[in-house]
Fold each of these.
Amino acid sequence: MKDDVRMRGFARRHTVEAALELLDRHIQPLDAERLPLRSASRRVLAADVESDVDVPGFDRATMDGYAVVAASTEGAASYTPLPLVVIGDSLPARPFDGTVASGQAVRIMTGAPLPAGSDAVLPAEWIDGASDSANVAALAAVSPGKNVGHRGEDVARGTTVLGRGRTLRPQDLGVLSSIGVGDVCVIRRPRVRLVITGNELLAAGSSPTGYSIADANGPMLKALAERDGAVVDDPWLVPDEPEAIVEALHCGSDVVIVSGGSSVGLEDLAPTLLAKHGELWVHGVAMRPSSPTGFGKLGSSLVFLLPGNPVSCLCGYDFFAGRAVRTLAGGSKEWPYRSIVAALEHKITSQIGRLDYARVRVVGGRVEPLAIGGASVLSSTTRADGFVIVPADSEGFAPGTDVTVWLYA
Amino acid sequence: MKDDVRMRGFARRHTVEAALELLDRHIQPLDAERLPLRSASRRVLAADVESDVDVPGFDRATMDGYAVVAASTEGAASYTPLPLVVIGDSLPARPFDGTVASGQAVRIMTGAPLPAGSDAVLPAEWIDGASDSANVAALAAVSPGKNVGHRGEDVARGTTVLGRGRTLRPQDLGVLSSIGVGDVCVIRRPRVRLVITGNELLAAGSSPTGYSIADANGPMLKALAERDGAVVDDPWLVPDEPEAIVEALHCGSDVVIVSGGSSVGLEDLAPTLLAKHGELWVHGVAMRPSSPTGFGKLGSSLVFLLPGNPVSCLCGYDFFAGRAVRTLAGGSKEWPYRSIVAALEHKITSQIGRLDYARVRVVGGRVEPLAIGGASVLSSTTRADGFVIVPADSEGFAPGTDVTVWLYA
């Protein structure tokens, strides 16, 4: 158990870039499932959707008014009204059956089918005569096609309406419904198991007592993974015992996220166990916090080993586990955070060779680094508006430098 | 039924600003409910949360190493090692029971309680000697408090950890859990009923046949309202009959959204019915599309009358109904869309006195207005990346103008 190397730090750390490159080689969108349209909002299409109908399926009025033969209104004006004989009505789904000839008109509502013979709609305000009169007069001329929505103008049969990889917006569901699509083929949501290790931990929601502390990482990781599209069971609390950890890792979930015991200390069991029972691809990353992060594979599950310190855990999730969850779900690898660019109020210092994740506030349009303790102070991430990344090749930023702030949401 | 005024347009239109001002007077966050933490992500706190514990509840190590009396390491350096007698171990939740004196040390893990007597942690890499040895040597001095996380440094007892109105982030759930909060008091989600009117409509997912069309607005409105924090039942499809519409309106939901029949045409029944059975505050807004939009109240329900044309329906939702849903849910009135500023590729023209909602694409960083039909072409909002608002006092924007684009999501 007590091993000099394990007590003295990592033999070698991956750069963040190298770790991400390695991760990206192992992640791709999951297989597909069919879902009813009503459940498909924000999901990712697994295949192109082509329309096999025209929308609308018929020419229709785009205004309330009178369907006419456009040519028969030529010369009409307020001082030279042209008489029209009203021969019927066209309402949505209750079309006019006959044919409109020159000098005739059919009262028509928005969305109603354009009657045979007519080729334009004269808006109601260009008509003289009561709306229930059989004899009215045109006060203006219309050109052919005016105020008519043509068959297929919204969606033409055979068109690819939405492409594979599209994250479905509310209006996309509307368009899919309009072409008669009742269910869609979308990327399956990854199943994520959370394994929270630590003899000192009490279940979330417990009052901390004595030297025991309540699990903060479980509720946080569950919300993060759900935000990124995963289906997440309630966290498993596991003691720092090899058998218990190994049992928790074997689950067949798409992703397992382990919190705690990821470093090189006496009770940091997870890396050794993952290496023994599966594959440990990365262990130790040149970043702060979250340097004792690792990942690999066990059976069909991607396994992420995140530090138990909650700020490290958040940072390690955002850099590695979250990227995997989002990619498996068919979404973007990139952070789901908005970014802004603003000037630093105070300097941020960092070390060459290590990427830094600096929590900041944005006050009056200026970026204020938070004077914060270490990776154990989770409240620093609730007081912060977001974070600034200092790349590994930088010693930090001077006051006044424009920096990119990623805003927590 | 056939009434000249109703066929000829609105007697008067509200400006968008006036309509919003009127709406804002009638909307405020709903009452509160208690929820388990695990279900509270993205919900809005209904009350401040104060901590009645310190986190951590004890001084602890922030690194793996040796707990010592800092003063006893004075003068230690690699060429002048100072001997230390290791008298025990401190592990998380398994503290060392004794007291550390000068010249003594306790092996300690990150997060473990700092033993009595000690006031600093000497990192393992500054120690000469095997990690299981009882006699080691300090290779460097530490100052008091070094590598120690003090009681209450994350959260001090009595502190307001998160304030009323806060939308809970994943890390907020972590902090709440760490102070022993198992459930939280959050603003209730508004219940929304969707009433989709139109004799020509088939239920979402049906193939359009003859002169009937499949409901596009129901699935779209459901996804929009859910996005904004509502609980939404499946849409009610209702024929254009007064009794059926009135029955659907009486439901006690916090919000009722009616699609279709909102204008002044022959079968536009909703405004008259709302005025008769409840209150119609606004009917007709100086905007395009979505001018035939209205809202008011019936019993305890806010009622929104949106045009049946799907682009109008989307626009009317975003301007009015969505604002109400988000406010009732405790969130921001403002659009949930990101915005960017970019230069127009082609001009956008508008009329003074009317606000315009112009769908655009963003191609190579330039804003291209979509050459699109009217409010009936929903696919214009799936081809668009977002929209540009032309205010009522503007005739539009010339090519090259920097405009704000609200990006659909």
Amino acid sequence: MTTRAPVLIVGSMAFDDLELPTGTFANTVGGSATYASFAASTFTEVRVVAVVGDDFDAGTLAALETRGVSTRGIERAKGKTFRWAGRYDADLVGRVTLDTQLNVFADFQPKLGNEHSQCPIVLLGNIHPTLQAQVLDAMTGPELVVADTMNFWITGEPEKLAALLPRVHVLIINDEEARELSGIHNIRRAAAEIRRRGPHTLIIKRGEHGALLFDETGIFAVPGYPLEEVIDPTGAGDSFAGGFIGYLAAHRGKIDPHVLRTAMLYGTATASRCVEGVGTSKVQTLVLGDVEARVVQIRTLFELPR
Amino acid sequence: MTTRAPVLIVGSMAFDDLELPTGTFANTVGGSATYASFAASTFTEVRVVAVVGDDFDAGTLAALETRGVSTRGIERAKGKTFRWAGRYDADLVGRVTLDTQLNVFADFQPKLGNEHSQCPIVLLGNIHPTLQAQVLDAMTGPELVVADTMNFWITGEPEKLAALLPRVHVLIINDEEARELSGIHNIRRAAAEIRRRGPHTLIIKRGEHGALLFDETGIFAVPGYPLEEVIDPTGAGDSFAGGFIGYLAAHRGKIDPHVLRTAMLYGTATASRCVEGVGTSKVQTLVLGDVEARVVQIRTLFELPR
């Protein structure tokens, strides 16, 4: 029987200063947990665990609550919220980090209440693999663990990450991270090696080129949706993860290779909606109809007309 | 009614010196017309127009003839065959050109006999746009003109290329070339601009990420097939074009958006077979069953299992 499960999302909340070709946007609300929570809340109930400083934006917390996101797990610490500043190239593909201030995020210790520990489905955002493991330790056996990571942890904490992987069902990383994690350049053999280390499903994000899913059934490819205009790529990957896990949570009890592949379409659609606006502006007002319309558009990309 | 039409292919024939991660291969037979002719001959009769020097490999000409490729249009000029030398990165994505010697190709003047001028379908390989135009001038109204070009002509001969485009039905280029040709970074708007200048169909090759087709029906995306092992990417684009046009020629009389999209699958499959060996080794022994098996594998990449 299919039921709609709540999702636990653990990750960062931040202020971003964005230099985009269309202008400079200071103090934009960002962070992996923020994007993923807005995205997932299009599909299901979300409970978020994160830390913000005493300068964080109350309007964003209210916007999350309005979408059914429980914000009780967002710790308000004394000090400043995590800040990131970046400048995008004119083509919106390349970007440089201008500044990173961890602030209260430096001492982030995820604290789970019952509403969090009992979630059957969890998205472990890109945080220290030890913290990701602590979240799983505090949970009462989640049915589905989806995790993100990055080069910083792959090279800096290889043993901690290796210990985490057997506890992860779905790992979501990009091409470069897959190559670094596996030590194998060929993406197909890299995927096989990573799956051997734990996750039954590996998703490789390829930006504008879409995403690949590898599981025991084979390989599934979703093309990126060629938008007429991309405004801000920030949060695309987190919105993908949020849309992906949100769709899965809405299909609890029948998550199989078919549903996992369909969730890839929904994640891709969610990400493509996100990048149509600055920061979280699009993803925080997303409704299911918007995502479904984009899913239909994405499907036409690989349908043969008769 | 569907009939099988002969294809005219005009382009380069060459010797390549390849430095691959798996070894160095000197005097490998290459060239756009060579790869495309071997590829297209898997599907239909091919007639090639090119120039080689008196040092060219007789075995390759015999191999072409064996596959039903008419080589009477290959001029044997006094002097040396076009040579290219390149070194691939360990990842087989980046490559540097070490040497280019145009030799007899510098004075290439395509000479068409009746068997060439009456072909209903033509692939204009990547040569000077003036030569491409001369080929069309010499033909008795081909039904389908497919053309390739490159940055060298886009920047060096913009007017000649602009004059050619209204005579081209299907243009095949890569992302970077589409951006340079249109002056627009966004790939979707770039495609619309290029189609406005002539070709009803634009195909954008994206290497390992597959290819996109833009026509009046919309956009079609074919993912690259993730191979366990890529040996030599040389000639992948030309094999794509050859497989694509070969499939179309085998469906003369019913070339429509459906057939054009299916031809994309066959072109992608042909290219993915090509790169499994050094030089033309794989594409020159290709049989339809090999391509069809790969088409099935590519289709599973975007099929939702039930």
